[in-house]
Write a structure and sequence with these properties.
The complex is a heterodimer. Chain A is α/β, with parallel strands linked by helices. Chain A folds into three domains: 3-164, Rossmann fold (3-Layer(aba) Sandwich); 185-342, 3-Layer(aba) Sandwich (Rossmann fold); 352-523, Rossmann fold (3-Layer(aba) Sandwich), CATH 3.40.50. Chain A is 36% helix and 15% strand. Chain A has a six-stranded parallel sheet with strand order 2-1-3-4-6-5, with helices on both faces. Chain A is globular. Chain B folds into two domains: 1-82, 2-Layer Sandwich (Alpha-Beta Plaits); 86-152, Alpha-Beta Plaits. In chain B, the strands form two sheets. In chain B, strands 5, 6, 7, 8 and 9 form a five-stranded antiparallel sheet that branches. The longest helix of chain B is centred in the first third of the chain and has 12 residues, at 19-30. Classes of the chains: A alpha/beta, B alpha+beta. The interface between A and B is medium-sized, with 20 and 20 residues. Chain B: Pfam families: ACT_AHAS_ss (PF22629), ALS_ss_C (PF10369).
Chain lengths: 568, 200
C-alpha cells in the first residue's frame, strides 16, 4: 500500500462517498490510487473553485463534511476562495492538496505554492504531511476538526513523494463524535428569568442553529416568542408560522428590524452578529437585554454586549430553555408586530423581485434553493419561503460571486432525488459558468438554473446610485453578455427565456418540467434596487422602506442616514 | 483605547511547524498589539511556552484569549492578570567607554548588579536581568556614555507556586487552573491522535 492508497482507504473508512476535484502533476499518485477505490466517487469539475463550492453545497445541504481535492500551486490557490467562504459560513470541509516532493519544498519548484501559509487565516486548521506514517492519522484528525464544535474548513497538503511512499500502518476508523457541550444550568436559569420578565421579547436565529430547527420551533411555540431568522438561519424556523417576522439586517424585513429596535429581551441563538445584521452597532437593539446562545466562546461579546452568555450547543440549549416555558406574547406586542408585518409588500410590477417571487413560489419545501451573490440573492432571501433547514444555500459571510451554480451541483449530487434550483445574476453566473460541463459529464438531471439578467452588476450599481451620485463605474455588462440560452445549448443543457410578466409562467413551466437540468434566463429591467434597505452605517430603525425590487425617492432618506452616520 | 495597559499571557503550545506564525498572524489579522513575545522549550518534549505582552484594554485581551483558545496547537493559556506571577527580562547592552568614563560605567553597572559579559577597548557589554523598570532604568543611566547596541529578550513569566497570597476568586476552593499539569492536554491530544480512548 502507498500513501495515496492510505488516503483513499482513510476517506472510505470515514464514509466519504464523493470527492470534488481536479487532477494535476503533484497529485497524480492520488488519482492513480483512486482507480483502486470504486467506493469513493470522484466528480471532475471544470475549475478547482467549482470543486470547492460544490463540496460546500454538499455540506450545506446535508450537514455532513464536503471534500475537495486539487493539485499543487495553481490548483491549490484556486481552492482559496472556497476555503475562505467555508471559514466564514462555518462549513465542514476537507481540502486535500498535492504538493511538490519534500526535497523540492522551499526551492520555488515548478507548481509550488506555500498553500498552508496562504490558507492559514482562512482554515480552521491545516497540515503539511511530513511523514507517510502520519498521513491517515492526520486525515482522520482533519475530518474530526472540520466536523466538531463550530465546523470549518481543514486543509491537508501532501507532498508527492509521500503519496508514493510505502505505507505499512493501520487505517484509522472515525473518531467518535465529540461530546455535545451542554450549557450550564445557571446560564439557562438566568436566560429563563429574563424571558419571564419580557414585555417585548424577540428571538433571533442564525446559521449555527440550523440543525436545531425542531428544538428552536418547539421553544418559540412554547414561549410564544416571535422569531427572526438571519440570512444564514433561514429555514431554522418555518416561515409559514405566524410567529415568524422575517430576516433582519441590511435588506431585512420591516417587522424584523423594527422588532429588534423595540425589543426589551433579545434571545440570539447560533449567530455572530455580523455587521450586515446589526447595522450600526450602537443602534442595535438599544433597549434590549441580550441572551446569546453560542458554541464558539469567541463570538460571545465580540460585537454586541451580552447580558446573559449561554455557551453550548444550540440543540441542547433550546431544549433546556423550552422547559418551564410560559406564554409571554402580550396582546400589545402582538398588535405592534402585526402592524409591522402588514408592511411587507410583494412586488407587483415586472422586475427582478417579481421574477424571483414567481420562481420561488413554484418550489416545494423539499426543493433546495441556492443563490449566487447580489440583488437576486437578497430578493430570494426576502421573498422565498423557508419551511425547513438546509434547503437554502448561499454564500453569506464572504459573499462570493460564482458560488451559487457549483454549490447547487454539489447539493444536487448529495440528494439526487431532490430538485436543486439556483438563482443567479448575469454577472455571478459567468464566474463559474464552465461548470455546465459538469452537468453534462455526469448527466445530472436535477439542477435548475435561473438567471436574473438585468445587464448590470446590480448590487454594485445600486450602491453607486445611492452613495456615488449615480456614477456607474464598470458595472454595465449588457453589450457583452452572452446569449445564455445559446451558452447552455453549447453544453446540451436546454435553455428557456422570459422577457415579460406575460411570458414568465409558461417559461417557468417548461423549465421546471424539462426532464433534464435546464436553464431559464429572465430578462428584467436594468434599473431596480433591493429594498427595504438599511444603508451602511445606519441603524436598523433607519431602514428605508419600500417594495422589494423598486427604487424609491432616496434623497430624504439618504440625507437622514448620512446625518445619523456622522452623529455616530 | 480606554484603560489600555500591558497584559501578560503565557501560552503552552504544541511544538509544531508554523505554530508561531499562527499565533502572530492571528494577532496581526485581528489587530491586537503585541508588545513582546518570547518563546522557549519547556520541560516537556513537544511543548513550547510563550510569554506574550499584549497592549490593550481588558475586552481586547479577553477576545484575544478566546481566539487563541480556538487554535488547534494551543494547549493552554494562562492569563496572568488572574494569577500571581513572577516575571523577568534580560537585556544585553553594549556601552561605549573612554579611559575617563570606564570606572564610572562599571560602578553604575555594579549598582544594578549587572554582569560584564564582554570587555573591549572601546566598549563594555553588560547583562542585566530584572523587571522591565529596572532594565529601562539601566539603559537610561548608560545613555549619556553612548549606547552602541542593545537587545532585550522580552518578558518571561511563571505563576507563583504558592497560593498563600492569591485572591480567592482565582482559586475558589482548590488549585488554580494555571498550576494543573500541563501535560494533560498534550497527552490527551496525543492519545486522540493515536485513536486511544481518552481516560482523563
Amino acid at each position: 500500500m502507498t500513501g495515496a492508497k492510505a488516503l483513499w482507504a482513510t476517506l472510505a473508512n470515514h464514509g466519504i462517498s464523493t470527492v470534488f476535484g481536479y487532477p494535476g502533476g503533484a497529485i497524480m499518485p492520488v488519482y492513480d490510487a483512486l482507480t483502486f477505490y470504486p467506493e469513493v466517487r470522484h466528480v471532475l469539475t471544470r475549475h478547482e473553485q467549482g470543486a470547492a463550492h460544490a463540496a460546500e453545497g454538499w455540506a450545506k445541504a446535508t450537514g455532513e463534511i464536503g471534500v475537495c481535492m486539487a493539485t499543487s500551486g495553481p490548483g491549490a490557490t484556486n481552492l482559496v476562495t472556497g476555503l475562505a467562504d467555508a471559514m466564514l459560513d462555518s462549513v465542514p470541509l476537507l481540502a486535500i492538496t498535492g504538493n511538490v516532493a519534500r526535497h523540492l519544498m522551499g526551492t520555488d519548484a515548478f507548481q509550488e505554492a506555500d498553500i498552508t501559509g496562504i490558507t492559514l487565516p482562512i482554515t480552521k486548521h491545516n497540515y503539511v504531511v511530513r511523514e507517510v506514517e502520519d498521513l491517515p492519522r492526520i486525515v482522520a484528525e482533519a475530518i474530526r476538526i472540520a466536523r466538531s464544535g463550530r465546523p470549518g474548513p481543514v486543509l491537508v497538503d501532501i507532498p508527492k513523494d509521500i503519496q508514493l511512499a510505502p505505507f505499512h500502518g493501520e487505517i484509522p476508523t472515525p473518531h467518535a463524535r465529540p461530546e455535545i457541550s451542554a450549557p450550564s444550568t445557571e446560564s439557562i436559569e438566568r436566560a429563563r428569568s429574563l424571558l419571564l420578565g419580557a414585555k417585548k421579547p424577540v428571538m433571533m436565529v442564525g446559521g449555527g442553529a440550523l440543525d436545531a430547527a425542531a428544538e428552536i420551533t418547539a421553544l418559540a411555540r412554547a414561549w410564544d416568542i416571535p422569531v427572526i431568522t438571519t440570512l444564514m438561519g433561514l429555514g431554522a424556523f418555518p416561515s409559514s408560522d405566524p410567529l415568524w417576522l422575517g430576516m433582519p439586517g441590511m435588506h431585512g424585513s420591516v417587522a424584523a428590524n423594527r422588532a429588534i429596535s423595540e425589543a426589551d429581551v433579545l434571545l440570539g441563538i447560533g449567530l455572530r452578529f455580523d455587521d450586515r445584521v446589526t447595522g450600526r452597532v450602537n443602534g442595535f437593539a438599544p433597549n434590549a437585554s441580550i441572551i446569546h446562545v453560542e458554541l464558539d466562546a469567541a463570538e460571545i461579546g465580540k460585537i454586541i454586549r451580552t447580558h446573559v452568555p449561554v455557551r453550548g450547543d444550540a440543540k441542547v440549549a433550546a431544549a433546556m430553555l423550552t422547559q418551564g416555558a410560559q406564554k409571554i406574547l402580550t396582546p400589545e406586542w402582538k398588535a405592534t408586530l402585526a402592524e409591522w408585518t402588514s408592511r411587507t409588500v410583494t412586488p407587483e410590477t415586472w422586475g427582478a423581485g417579481y421574477a424571483v417571487k414567481a420562481v420561488t413560489e413554484r418550489l416545494s419545501e423539499h426543493d433546495i434553493l441556492s443563490s449566487d451573490v447580489g440583488q437576486h440573492q437578497m430578493l430570494a432571501a426576502q421573498l422565498a419561503r423557508f419551511e425547513r433547514p438546509r434547503r437554502w444555500i448561499n454564500s453569506g459571510g464572504l459573499g462570493t460571486m460564482g458560488f451559487g451554480f457549483p454549490a447547487a451541483i454539489g447539493a444536487a449530487m448529495a440528494e439526487p432525488g431532490v430538485r436543486s434550483v439556483v438563482i443567479a445574476g448575469d454577472g455571478g453566473f459567468q464566474m463559474t459558468a464552465q461548470e455546465l460541463a459538469t452537468l453534462k459529464m455526469y448527466d445530472i438531471r436535477n439542477v435548475k438554473i435561473c438567471i436574473i439578467n438585468n445587464s448590470f452588476l446590480g448590487m454594485v450599481r445600486q450602491w453607486q446610485e445611492m452613495f456615488h451620485e449615480k456614477r456607474y463605474s464598470e458595472v454595465w455588462l449588457g453589450d457583452s453578455n452572452p446569449d445564455f440560452v445559446k451558452l447552455a445549448d453549447a453544453y446540451d443543457v436546454p435553455g428557456y427565456r422570459a422577457t415579460s410578466a406575460e411570458e414568465l409562467p409558461a417559461a417557468i413551466d417548461a423549465w421546471l418540467n424539462d426532464p433534464k437540468s435546464a436553464l431559464l434566463e429572465v430578462v428584467v429591467p436594468h434599473e431596480h434596487g433591493v429594498f427595504p434597505m438599511v444603508p451602511a452605517g445606519a441603524a436598523l430603525y433607519e431602514l428605508i422602506e419600500t417594495e422589494p425590487g423598486r427604487t424609491p425617492d432616496l434623497s430624504d432618506a439618504m440625507e437622514h442616514a448620512a446625518e445619523e452616520a456622522n452623529k455616530a | 483605547m480606554t484603560n489600555a495597559q500591558d497584559q501578560l499571557l503565557s501560552l503552552l503550545v504544541r511544538d509544531e511547524p508554523r505554530v508561531l506564525t499562527r499565533i502572530t498572524a492571528l494577532f496581526g489579522r485581528r489587530g491586537y498589539n503585541i508588545k513582546s513575545l518570547s518563546v522557549g522549550t519547556t520541560e516537556h518534549p513537544g511543548v513550547s511556552r510563550m510569554t506574550i505582552v499584549v497592549h490593550g484594554d481588558r475586552g481586547v485581551v479577553e477576545q484575544a484569549i478566546k481566539q487563541l483558545e480556538k487554535l488547534h496547537d494551543v494547549v493552554k493559556i494562562i492569563d496572568h492578570s488572574l494569577e500571581k506571577f513572577v516575571d523577568r527580562e534580560l537585556v544585553l547592552v553594549k556601552v561605549a567607554i573612554t579611559p575617563e568614563s570606564r570606572v564610572e560605567v562599571r560602578q553604575i553597572a555594579e549598582d544594578f548588579r549587572s554582569r560584564i559579559v564582554d570587555v573591549g577597548r572601546h566598549a563594555l557589554t553588560f547583562e542585566v536581568t530584572g523587571d522591565e523598570g529596572k532594565l529601562t532604568a539601566f539603559i537610561e543611566q548608560m545613555r549619556p556614555f553612548g549606547i552602541l547596541e542593545t537587545m532585550r529578550t522580552g518578558r518571561i513569566a511563571l505563576t507563583r507556586g504558592s497560593n498563600a497570597d492569591v485572591p480567592s476568586h482565582v482559586y475558589h476552593e482548590g488549585e488554580t487552573e494555571a498550576l494543573k499539569p500541563v501535560m494533560e492536554g498534550v497527552e490527551a491530544r496525543e492519545e486522540r491522535a493515536r485513536g486511544v480512548p481518552n481516560l482523563f
